[in-house]
Write the structure tokens for this entry.
Amino acid sequence: MTRIKKAFLVIFILIAVIFVVSFLTGIFGRGLGDKIGVVEIEGVITDGKDTMEDIVKFKEDDGIKGVIVRINSPGGSVGPSQEIYRELKKLSVKKKVYISASSVCASGGYYIASAGEKIFANPSTITGSIGVIMEQVVAEDLMKKIGIQPNTIKAGQFKDVGSPFRKMKDDERAYFQQILDSIHEQFIKDVAEGRKMSVEQAKKLSDGRVYTGSQAKELGLVDSIGTFYDTVDDMKKTLGIKGKPVLVHGKRPFSFLKWLISSVTETIIRYYNSAPARYYNYKFMPNL
């Protein structure tokens, strides 16, 4: 037998072994206990597609008895945060949804967390930050110093609002403030609904400040102080699961580009913003 044939035979055997092991694990794994789905949200929230796919998959899988959402995020874009929140609310109609907050579960991260029936956090978890922010860097004076003059041609009064090449006018600032206030109201309303508190009570906690996990528990923003496995144990008890539950993690393809962008973004944010509450202030868009 030639070396090439031997190599192909070895590869074929390895593939066959991997397939058999995966198949047997799937069969016997189901017999070890009921399954709990785990959705992981990590880093700055820029796109909710992968997370929503995990949520929908667990919702449609009758073998999944409940879902735990593990969040380690300082927040991010408004749209994706709201999308994930809505899908979790749909999921909660059919199954138990618990939240496990890691080191940071703030702003958009907390927006998502408020969709859960129970929120678990560590005593030092940074959470809350119920607010919306938009920032602009103006390079107008710098451009004048180096002799560069931008030209803008537009159709529509507010088409170039937020341009870094000129200072914002009063009416433009009022226009943006109206948008931010509207988003903030949506945020407060959803938190109030998720945490089963009045809008007035939620508004008092929504001035943008962060809380530790312990403080959040006292204020009603968190239900229990505990780790991820405390969350698992509580769900196991609530669902009446006998034996050790099987944790099924959402399987999403690894994206090097997404990881690189997220890592660079977080590094820049940490460099320019010392307070954890301001990790998400990284571009001129409404951010949670």
Remarks:
- Residues 66 and 209 are 32 Å apart (CA to CA).
- The longest strand covers residues 96-106.
